[in-house]
Amino acid sequence: MNKKELRIKYKALRAKLSSEDIEDKSLAIANQAVKSDFWNKLYYHIFLPIMEHKEVDTEFLLQVLAGKDKEIIVSKSNFETRKMIHFLLTDNTKFKKNEYNIPEPVDGIEVPSAKIDVVFVPLLAFDKKGHRVGYGKGFYDNFLAECREDVLKVGLSFFEPEEEIIDVCKSDVKLDFCITPEKIYEIKS
């Protein structure tokens, strides 16, 4: 399937999920993540979900990261440049939803992309080769292109992978892993 078809399919599948489904599946994803071997890093970037779009609730992963004493990074999006500014999450971080209902830090200690070790990536769908489909704005592809070459890119998905996304671009950044409620997919290059 192509990206447009996959966006339609997975938005419809998400729409059918109840709030209990989202909570259960998000907890299962966090429990899978705990089994992974990428916890030896320090700086972890995590997205805060758009609840209205029924995204993976990352609250459980935030608790894991805090429990492992990791430095947690959250972002603010600039819709004119399609770039993100990254901030260290602290006890004093205040959040405000932007016009797209994305919870964002109001301000804080800025962290350069090059410092980030692991990025948890939101997505609508992914394939077995590590390609992903997001909302099509390119924010994460732009952000991941700014990161170090060895940054770990970890997708979070309620659903299992597609066989192949047929219309990938050179600028699409592939995942290293994708975590679903059932398993962790390690993507081989």
Automatic annotation (TrEMBL):
Lineage: Bacteria, Pseudomonadati, Bacteroidota, Flavobacteriia, Flavobacteriales
Keywords: ATP-binding, Ligase, Magnesium, Metal-binding, Nucleotide-binding
Family, as annotated: Belongs to the 5-formyltetrahydrofolate cyclo-ligase family.
Organism expressing this protein natively: Flavobacterium qiangtangense
Name of the molecule in the record: 5-formyltetrahydrofolate cyclo-ligase
Keyword flag Magnesium: yes
Catalysed reactions, semicolon-separated: (6S)-5-formyl-5,6,7,8-tetrahydrofolate + ATP = (6R)-5,10-methenyltetrahydrofolate + ADP + phosphate
Pfam families, A to Z: 5-FTHF_cyc-lig
Cofactor: Mg(2+)
